[in-house]
Amino acid sequence: MNDSYNLQYPIGKFAVEGPVHEEQRTAWIGEIERLPEELSAAVAGLSEEQLETPYRDGGWTIRQVVHHLADSHMNSYMRFKLAATEELPTIKPYYEDRWAELADGAHAPIELSLQLLKSLHTRWVYFIKSLRPEQFDRAFVHPEHGRAMTLNDALGMYAWHGRHHVAHIAGLRERKGWQREA
Asked: What's this model's pTM, rounded to 2 decimal places?
């Protein structure tokens, strides 16, 4: 594995192997629940200059990563609700790279998205925990992938997604020697 792959996918690519059981679902829900706190800890004490540092060559800045998580997870929350209330809905994709370049993604204070993620994840987890086990077999279609994605798979993917981006920030801090606040 080359270094650019490790910087782009510090925890590896997302994959689900075999059926998802209740224990795995519970673990993923816990990861989604903890993300706002873990992300806040990952960016704690960073200066404005540090927030403008890309996590890898050709990658987003830390600021953009924080705002991307809010954008992405808002979309995911809506996708979960669509799948829970409609029969195999086709979701609307979005250009995350273009969103990251908009003023709120490229320049806004990260506190806006940190606060948003805290509220969003509290509500999302409340909703997820209300689902019956069989409801996690409900699905939506992502037109770019051309296949159904179950809520089980989406749950795992978004748990991974949060860890993935926190690892980008943690890896950059480590490479740059930027200490976390105690």
From this structure: 0.94
